[in-house]
From TrEMBL, chain A:
Its cofactor is pyridoxal 5'-phosphate. Keywords: Amino-acid biosynthesis, Aromatic amino acid biosynthesis, Lyase, Pyridoxal phosphate, Tryptophan biosynthesis. Residues 61-383 form the Tryptophan synthase beta chain-like PALP domain. It catalyses: (1S,2R)-1-C-(indol-3-yl)glycerol 3-phosphate + L-serine = D-glyceraldehyde 3-phosphate + L-tryptophan + H2O. It is an enzyme of class 4 (lyase). One of its GO terms (molecular function) is tryptophan synthase activity. Pathway: Amino-acid biosynthesis; L-tryptophan biosynthesis; L-tryptophan from chorismate: step 5/5. Transmembrane segments: none annotated. SUPFAM superfamilies: Tryptophan synthase beta subunit-like PLP-dependent enzymes. This is Tryptophan synthase beta chain. The gene is trpB. It comes from Maribacter arenosus. It comes from the Bacteria.
From TrEMBL, chain B:
Tetramer of two alpha and two beta chains. SUPFAM superfamilies: Ribulose-phoshate binding barrel (SSF51366). Keywords: Amino-acid biosynthesis, Aromatic amino acid biosynthesis, Lyase, Tryptophan biosynthesis. Belongs to the TrpA family. Its EC number is 4.2.1.20. Pathway: Amino-acid biosynthesis; L-tryptophan biosynthesis; L-tryptophan from chorismate: step 5/5. The active site is at residues 45, 56. This is Tryptophan synthase alpha chain. It catalyses: (1S,2R)-1-C-(indol-3-yl)glycerol 3-phosphate + L-serine = D-glyceraldehyde 3-phosphate + L-tryptophan + H2O. InterPro entries: Aldolase_TIM, RibuloseP-bd_barrel, Trp_synthase_alpha_AS, Trp_synthase_suA. It is an enzyme of class 4 (lyase).
Amino acid sequence: MTDNYFKTYPNKEGFFNEYGGAFIPPMLEEEMRKITDAYYAISKSHSFISELRSIRKHYQGRPTPVYYCNRLSEKYGGRIYLKREDLNHTGAHKLNHCMGEALLAKHLGKKKLIAETGAGQHGVALATAAAYFGLECEIHMGEVDMAKEHPNVVRMRILGANVVPVSHGLKTLKEAVDSAFEAYMKDPITTIYCIGSVVGPHPFPMMVRDFQRVVGIEAKAQFFDMTGELPDNVVACVGGGSNAMGIFSAFLDDSECSLYGVEPGGRSMEHGEHAATMTLGKPGVIHGFKCYTLQDENGEPSPVYSVASGLDYPGVGPEHSMLKDLKKVTYEVVSDKETIDAFYELSRMEGIIPALESAHAVAYAIKLAQENPRESILVNLSGRGDKDLDYVVDTYGLPD
Amino acid sequence: MNRINQKIKEGKKILSIYFTAGYPELNDTVRILEELEKNGVDLIEIGLPFSDPLADGPTIQESSTAALKKGMHTELLFEQLKDIRKSVSIPLIIMGYFNPVFQYGVEAFCKKCHEIGIDGLILPDLPLDVYQSEYEVIFKKYGLINVFLITPQTSDERIKQIDDASNGFIYMVSSASTTGTTKGFGEEQQHYFDRISAMKLKNPQIVGFGINNAETFKQATRSAAGAIIGSAFIKHLTSHGVDAISKFVKSIR
């Protein structure tokens, strides 16, 4: 199914069955068409692929390793492996699509990259890509997230990006997307909106997925090399869903692999206390695409919350929405508390401090390991936790 | 014949006003409509506020946020408009974003519009192909005109497709960005107006974005059938209130 799958989804209008598309005002229509055309024309060219491969190897440090968690597996059962995207340059998987998007922007003659960021990982990665290619960079970030993820704000500024604080609404990721769109709409010709996940209007969900496929392609080969088989389970956290699409994409036609997307359960499953879009949302249109959406009866996006700033978004990638309906991926929920426990557990058992986003996937993997002690579990450890240290220790304290 | 087609047929240059429902006060909607008609406005676009408007500039966004905060929502707007045809006879269009309509149910929404006497819809984020494959039948069933937008960047090929799919008028966005122009129309816009005029489209065009006084209204309607004023009217409402609507309309023509 693989070859066929990537050519079938999305279709030429950007739909993954009923999800995706480009629900955008006409001011953006022509630019999106140009980006789509350029993507098809350039991204398949030998020179683009060669340049991106060289960047991945010499600049990002790819391939990132797959690591077997000795002590964690010993303690909980199962065989837990991590795909170490935390070791990708800038400390998360985000640079995989940012380098691709920036390379494309350069080919399109764009002067400035604009984006939103939640936890700051996408912002840091894009600021890095902008520095690499000599482009300007403007990152929109909610004020709540700026306070919480202060180290990443400083990193972006050191890298030369202009960080724009967003002060409306809940001052988190959704509002940052609104603000970035607004900035982009002021000048869609010389700027490009490099959206931070497999979300937004076509072609972004497709492009970001394609640039993230490297994670799955590497991980599958590495896991096979280490074990002589495919993983029984693949686990990744899902906010917008870029790291999850990256790793899942390699296993979609392997029926022996169970795929799990882990959503943020926040403080509780009450309205406004979580961001479990797949679990409690219904189809809607947000930020230019159709997907499962947390919203009220009037179609207004609901307030969302998660301890992980990179996951609290009321929408989700259209491809995930389709994969849920097709039952190719199971979407589960993990609470803030389980996440914090997993954050410390991985740190103390393996010496790896995960990002709070990725700690959601680790928490679910621990559950799976306990329930299925004979099975192997491959977790996409999408980012490192340096950005979260002060926030976690100040809010939750150190465990004994 | 739909009121929009009829109005266009009269041949006079159309002055159209956009305002956000529920702004400045939640229950101002009907009064604003009546005042606008009384003062000679030809067509009105009633904005259904949405929290994540991709196509609006700051003034309209702020009015939407304020209206939502006061409690405006789809059902309430329909409730306010239920007797509107007893006092207002000019064409009325609801302008909003697709998701609130989608959540209400596209068919239920169109049916309600038909019952009230709404003549058309403008949903800037509903793509042409999705409209044609899924919703055109419903719009036609309830006699609603769907208005599409074009911008200076829209290709000739796309404009022709839109012209074929339209049955009322084409909303011609004057500038490539949401901020629009504030200092009158320059050479670039004039070139765009001329280019569209030379295409001899079957649907008339009404220009929006950047029209804020008598001069820009005159410029925009030189070749187009009419012009829409949004932000400038909302700014006027904010500073002078509903009582001063007559003064605003008279300043335009």
